[in-house]
Amino acid sequence: MDSGAPPAVSSPAPASSGVISSEVNGSKALESTIRAPQKENNREKTKEANDNGNFSESSSDSEDDESVPTKEECIIQFKEMLKERGVAPFSKWEKELPKIVFDPRFKAIPSYSARKALFEHYVKTRADEERKEKRAAQKAAVEGFKQLLEEAKEDINEDTDYQSFKKKWGHDPRFESLDRKERQVLLNERVLQLRKAAQEKAYAVRAAAISKFKSMLREQGDITLNTRWSKVKDSLRNDPRYKSVKHEDREALFNEYLSELKAAEQEVARVAKAKHDEEDKLKERERALRKRKEREEQEVERVRLKARRKEAIESYQALLVEIIKDPQASWTESKPKLEKDPQGRAANPHLDQADSEKLFREHVKILYERCAQEFKALLAEVITVEACSRETEDGKTVANSWSTAKQLLKGDPRYSKMARKDRESFWRRYVEDIQRRQKSTLDEGDKARSKGSSDSRRR
């Protein structure tokens, strides 16, 4: 009897395979792979036990049992080992085996088939995990830089540029954790907001000063169309409203005020003349005027109804923009949501049921066309002639395999926005269009070569 075999190694293989297969993916195929024949497992366990030394079986007491990791821990440690050893996504078992075979965590998994099954699952899922880790790191970097901008708000104004900000805050780790382009974009967003606010404030201040300046002119009472600026400005110098306007703007505003006075007088004269003419002709036109007024009232009512209907349509369209954002939304499901609008835009009396449904379908159509346009643009960016020429290990390309093309497309938000049922058909039409263009180019080349050969023979 060999005294060097540890008690933990002699545990039944089927028991451990159940835990391992559950950790991997729970599939029957993997479970059957891990559950190797008992005889094969016993041979491997005996070999590993002989390699561990000549310890007596009596020495493997309860203390050794407590130090042996559980099967679940062995699985976790095995995956950590793969990650630490730099096993790449979709790598091959034979290629990576030399990196891991001498690691103690490799032998902690009892059978060859279980190790390989865990390896296969790891390399298939590692690509998604790396993408998630990268996205999380990018998001954290962006949030950190935004926090840095918030902390540095006292040093940021509408004139701040990237270099001056970098000079003061470039030592901060949150500054270095983000690419320069993204730093500039976030900083420029903050500066543009401040610049816009400063411009709006300056505009409001100037508009208020102009309004007060004209009020001051109105209060004078003796300013007429014939008044000269040179005659009136001396009497206004001590008024704060006079000083609040720039020197070069005062005379221009005075002339503008005179133009307003002239326009007002002309309007008064026009109204007075029209009234006088109407009174002179009132008796002879009374009957005709009455009929005309009736027609005008009808027209006004028609225009009013038209305007109200237009307003109702615009309000309902605004409601659709606020509520309906999914191009796949149905009228039946969306109607109750629209009717809950607190402003009552879906229940306007100038908008009937048929109009509401028609506007809804037009809105959904616009959303769909927008998503389709963006998806076509994504196809043009990803499914290029060069990409079509690259084949996978099984001979597939983005031009003949939707599943291969989907792997390149699905990371883009434009892919998610497009309706699931239409993605493949759009891809297929796009690929067919590329192939037609390539065939046309080849045909033209053949014709040119054929013509050149014919000319050469004639010469």
TrEMBL record:
Keywords assigned by UniProt, alphabetized: Coiled coil, Repeat
Bias-annotated ranges (Basic and acidic residues): 37-50, 334-343
SUPFAM superfamilies in UniProt: FF domain
Residue intervals passing through the bilayer: none
UniProt feature, compositional bias: Low complexity: 1-22
InterPro entries (UniProt xref): FF_domain, FF_domain_sf, TCRG1-like
FF domain boundaries: 71-125, 138-193, 206-260, 309-366, 368-433
A Pfam family reported for this protein in Swiss-Prot or TrEMBL: FF
Gene3D superfamilies given in the database record: FF domain
Residue ranges that the Swiss-Prot or TrEMBL entry lists as coiled coil: 247-315
Superkingdom classification of source: Eukaryota
Region of interest called Disordered, as start-end residue ranges on this chain: 1-72, 332-354, 438-459
Protein name: Pre-mRNA-processing protein 40C
Gene that this sequence comes from: PRP40C
